[in-house]
Amino acid sequence: MSNTIRAGVIGVGAMGGNHARVYARMPHSTLVAVADTDADQLNRVARTYRAHEYSDYRHMLDQEALDVVSIALPTHLHYAAALETMQRGIHTFVEKPLAESVATARAMIDASHRYGVILGVGHIERYNPAVIALKERLDSGQLGKVFQIHARRLGPFPPRIKDVGVVFDLATHELNIMEYLAGTGIRSIAAEVNRNLQNQHEDLVAGLLRFENDVVGVLDINWLTPTKIRQISILGERGMFLINYLTQELWFYENRSAHDRWEGLATVGVSEGSVIKYEIERVEPLRAELEAFIDAAQHGYNGLVNGEEGLRAVYLAEQLLRASRERRVIALPPYTPVPALHPAAQRLPVRPLTAAVPVEG
Ligand SMILES: NC(=O)c1ccc[n+]([C@@H]2O[C@H](COP(=O)([O-])OP(=O)(O)OC[C@H]3O[C@@H](n4cnc5c(N)ncnc54)[C@H](O)[C@@H]3O)[C@@H](O)[C@H]2O)c1
User: Fold this and answer.
1) 221 found inside a domain
2) Stated pTM of the model
């Protein structure tokens, strides 16, 4: 087994094309093959990165000795493709949302255990350096008690997405990040959704969350806004953090009253203070994500956002839709989110890379 990871990509549309580029350019991987049913798209990506091309991904999996595969198909096709890769012993990275239902997400996790392979999920904002910097600051206690987390993910409708609504497509990003930053699970969910321009699926969701530590969460997500906004703010005793995911910027709006007095807001109140923009080294989150995936495939789990977290986001998306459908607040059982990335501390063994494992049955 050489040190160069042999990678394949299934579905080389908007997102899969980026996976192909990253595998082709990372020093420890080589892009061996790509698969797509759209001949033009397939040919363009295969030629750009000099990869073998397949119109049927099963043929690719049978003919190429792949160590890792990314699946960037439309969401409802993730499950079938992931079973094909995992039963061949190939470590599998699935774009978010992991699946279109809790049942299929669970079956994917079961398969990853059965076949002893890594299952990574594309919750890409977890690799955004602004999110990582914010998590460190929250964990160090800079904000004091947290009051509210407010996520906004707005923009025009991407017409290529036909199989899921905005809750599965976009809210899953924020649900994962909000629990990660809160460090605690969501305890209750209320939501309103609407179909405005879309007939089949919702294109707007407003969610109201309560976390187990009493923090309030606000979700404001749609496919209707004529400009792309991706922001999250965390309000607490000592001020407010604000992230622009797109520009990877992190600001802190200080509560001047709490600057050097710690007796609690009840006595000091809130007033405007300094605004700090932290220096953050920009990175490509997809590259950081696939590096973590390859590292996990070689050495065991390392804090990679895994199938369990993908399942949790799918579960929360289902509960958001349910809360809206049933017009009531849904109470959720306790859940403890994974801690921050601690590469050494969280590493769990997996079996070695096994491109040559035969298909069962
Ligand atoms: N992490 C992120 O920020 C992010 C961003 C965009 C998309 N995504 C996810 O990536 C996935 C793909 O989204 P996209 O925007 O790239 O969609 P897309 O439509 O641009 O790409 C999907 C590709 O799959 C191909 N395809 C469809 N059926 C196939 C089959 N049976 N076999 C082989 N190829 C097939 C299509 O021809 C197309 O090229 C979705 O799950 C989406 O949610 C994630």
Assistant:
1) yes
2) 0.93
